[in-house]
Write a structure and sequence with these properties.
By secondary structure, the protein is an alpha+beta fold. It has a single domain, classed as FAD/NAD(P)-binding domain (3-Layer(bba) Sandwich). Helix content is 33%, strand content 29%. Strands 5, 6, 13, 14, 15, 16, 17, 18 and 21 form a nine-stranded mixed beta sheet that branches. Strands 8-2-1-12-20-19 form a six-stranded mixed beta sheet, with helices on one face. A hairpin with a 2-residue loop joins strand 9 and strand 10. It is globular and about 65 Å long. The relative contact order is 0.18.
Length: 428
């Protein structure tokens, strides 16, 4: 039963990929809830284009196979797949050394190991789907504070020059890794600076990618090239994640595009032929950020507001998505039992169930950085032996594949209705 004494049942601070996905999942799984999303950017049905034209410089996200299954159950995958490039193969190697391992989707009976989708396309797809739901939007607006009250929370909102309050049973903070609201509410974060930066850009190569994702570890840091572009034709465009120290980043940013391609060629090698183009470059410092306690009565942190990972393993959004579904599952339970959404028995169970997943994922991503960041000969030799071992030992390779595909953790129930149906397929 929802609480009619409040303005709404659930308030989501942030309407990005995490917040919008949570809102859509709630509309599908717990449709009786009144959900309000507060987003800083203006949102309007008129702003949604009829036809999506991918940009060469579009930022993208790696979606694991497990994330595809979640979006299928939410009824969104068929749309997302229109511009999602499948990953059929993953090639992991150590620059200048013999160690390498390869994963192939067909070996695991899957259509793909994962996908690469433009962030803007994902956002537009979510917005279009949400237009057909009763989810309420306050945009452009910003949550500026929150105070507890009996049975829920009172959230302060600023919209232009106006300030007002909105009451609800629970507040979900989904405004990203630079969440000012998280700090304002007193959540304590632990941050470990890797002393590196991620440079993000799209690149073109003389050879087609063959739907292969490359993870390349070098003495200067890891880099990844993910297939990008057409979902059905292996083209020559890839999404680059290039890890650089502060000084190396300054040097690369000072180069011309041709010089950047040459520097990239020296780091990555010739597995995709010659680098012919590099698009607009974005960069950000790499930090491991976690929150010891991501919930308190009436409040829950999700997505990057709760944990931000190194992008080397491409697990950040996939981990967040699994956490969102776990939270939705607990909200479904709360409604069934007549318990307030913000009750600590509900939010605490969400944290308990999700904690093991994020601890294992953080450990997996962090260990890759530490193991492959060592250049001492004995450690490098052991690392190469480990990569070769993954190729030779089926059990070890299956474990690594499950991590890469995001299928090794707990699988929350996404929807009573949708999970009972055969999900629509749109395999590439």
């Amino acid at each position: 039963m929802t609480d009619t004494r409040t303005d709404t049942d659930l308030i989501i601070a942030g309407g990005g990929l995490a917040g919008a996905t949570l809102a859509l999942a709630l509309a599908r799984v717990v449709p009786e809830l009144r959900v309000t999303v507060v987003e800083t950017f203006p949102l309007s049905p008129d702003a949604l284009p009829e036809d999506y034209q991918p940009s060469y410089d579009a930022r993208s996200t790696a979606l694991a196979w497990g994330s595809r299954l979640i979006f299928e159950n939410l009824g969104l995958w068929q749309v997302l797949a229109e511009h999602a490039t499948p990953i059929h193969h993953i090639h992991v190697s150590d620059r200048g050394r013999f160690g390498a391992t390869r994963l192939h989707a067909q070996d695991h009976g899957q259509a793909a190991l994962g996908y690469v989708a433009d962030n803007r396309w994902m956002g537009l797809s979510l917005m279009r789907a949400l237009l057909d739901t009763p989810v309420s939007w306050q945009a452009p607006a910003e949550v500026t504070g929150m105070t507890p009250m009996p049975g829920g929370v009172c959230v302060q909102i600023r919209k232009g020059d106006d300030q007002y309050s909105l009451t609800g049973q629970c507040l979900v903070v989904a405004d990203g890794g630079r969440s000012g609201l998280r700090e304002q509410l007193g959540f304590v974060t632990r941050t470990e600076d890797y002393g590196q930066n991620a440079l993000i850009a799209n690149v073109s190569t003389s050879d087609a990618h063959g739907f292969t994702a490359f993870e390349r570890f070098t003495e200067a840091g890891p880099m990844a090239l993910l297939p990008h572009g057409s979902p059905v034709t292996a083209e020559n465009q890839s999404a680059l994640v290039w890890t650089l120290t502060d000084s190396a980043l300054e040097q690369v940013l000072a180069l011309s595009d041709d010089q950047r391609c040459q520097a990239l060629q020296e780091r990555f090698g010739w597995r995709l032929g010659r680098f012919t183009r590099i698009g607009e470059c974005h960069h950000y410092p790499l930090k491991l950020t976690t929150v010891d306690e991501a919930v308190r009565p009436g409040v829950a942190l999700v997505g990057n507001a709760a944990h931000a990972l190194h992008p080397v393993a491409g697990q950040g959004f996939n981990l967040a998505l699994r956490g969102l579904m776990t939270l939705v599952e607990q909200f479904r339970r709360a409604v069934d039992e007549g318990t307030p959404l913000g009750d600590l028995s509900i939010l605490g169970e969400y944290q308990r169930l999700h904690r093991q997943d994020w601890q294992q994922t953080v450990q997996f991503s962090d260990s890759l950085i530490r193991v492959f960041g060592q250049s001492l000969p004995p450690l490098a030799a052991a690392r190469d032996a480990g990569l070769v071992g993954l190729d030779l030992v089926p059990g070890a390779k299956r474990w690594f594949a499950r991590k890469a595909m995001g299928t090794g953790g707990r699988k929350p129930i996404v929807s009573r209705a949708d999970c009972s149906k055969e999900p629509a397929r749109n395999d590439q």
